[in-house]
Amino acid sequence: ESIVLLPGVVPGLHLAAQAFTQPGEAVLVQPPVYGRFFDVAREARLQQQEAPLVQDAEGRYGVDFEAFEAAITPQTRLFLLCNPQNPTGRVFTRPELERMAEICLRHGVLLAADEIHHDLVYRGNRHIPIASLSPEIAERTITLVAPSKTFNIAGLQAAAAIIPNKALRERFLGARRGLIEWVNVMGQTAAIAAYEQGEAWLEALLDYLEANRDFLIGYAQNYLPGIRVNAPQGTHLAWLDCRESGIEGLPHEFFRRKARVALNDGRWFGTGGEGFVRLNFATSRAVLREALERMQAALRPGKCDK
């Protein structure tokens, strides 16, 4: 009874804002983050507050808890969490999640957790749903999940919100206002089939994606001068730091023009995205290798001009 079916995780984020905030109040985000998060404040006429993730000496992203708490004001009503994190690939640890949740609860801030990549986590890491930390946290959390990333069925538009708190669930349902109704039959059927029969396929997928990730990391270290990338702990996405590559102009435009490789512009992910690109390595090894070889050729001395 805690589950509310939805046509997507992004509509769920918007519904949460419509249900639990009023225009002029505020929503908290942690850039760099999936660019659709930024639409939530604009569409609900909210203030957008930011607590940017920070990098350590090795380039690994984490939470600056002092900045996180300082970003919260009396107007803050909702925190949008992305875990596993897109685009950095971080899978937050239990202590990190506990501290973020404790701060939110202490300030009366609801949590809306986009956990769409929860199945795509690599060896040595574990995805912990933030709502599973305690009954108190579950009562203040809207968890959003979908089979779309894991099983590549995004076009069938099937997702769900998990809301244990009955009062919150009723407000969430009420925010639909006849605009967002049910999940189509094909989407429901595909989701059931994926979750009931897709475990062996998913295990093979994770092995393949992890090997692709390791190939990408090794290739970048050896053949992409000035490109820095940390091994993502989850997702099928790599966050490439191009700031020391010598590229003039925008890296995504450079690689599209010089290498004929299309990457996501880091600026779309907000604060901290300048000079970065996002690469999707959920493809065949042959395609990944060709893309990296093209990028390597584009980075040869004398070719990094605008």
Secondary structure elements and pairings:
Elements: E1 3-6, H1 9-20, E2 26-29, H2 37-44, E3 47-50, E4 54-55, E5 61-62, H3 65-71, E6 76-82, H4 94-106, E7 110-114, H5 135-138, E8 141-145, H6 148-151, E9 159-162, H7 166-174, H8 185-197, H9 199-223, E10 237-241, H10 251-259, E11 264-265, E12 276-280, H11 285-298
Parallel strand pairs: 2-3, 2-6, 6-7, 7-8
Antiparallel strand pairs: 1-9, 4-5, 8-9, 10-12, 11-12
Description of the molecule:
- The structure is a single chain.
- This protein has 306 residues and is an alpha/beta fold.
- It folds into 2 domains: 195 residues, Type I PLP-dependent aspartate aminotransferase-like (Major domain) (Aspartate Aminotransferase, domain 2); 99 residues, Aspartate Aminotransferase, domain 1 (Alpha-Beta Complex), CATH 3.90.1150.10.
- It is 39% helix and 16% strand.
- The strands form 3 sheets. A 7-stranded mixed β-sheet has the order 1-9-8-7-6-2-3, with helices on both faces.
- The protein is globular.
**Largest beta sheet, briefly?**
7 strands, mixed
3D shape: globular
Mean pLDDT: 96
N-to-C order of helices and strands:
EHEHEEEHEHEHEHEHHHEHEEH
Bin the strand percentage: 15-25%
Cα separation of the termini: 56 Å
Radius of gyration: 20 Å
CATH architecture of the largest domain: 3-Layer(aba) Sandwich
CATH top level class name of the largest domain: Alpha Beta
CATH names the topology of the largest domain as Aspartate Aminotransferase, domain 2
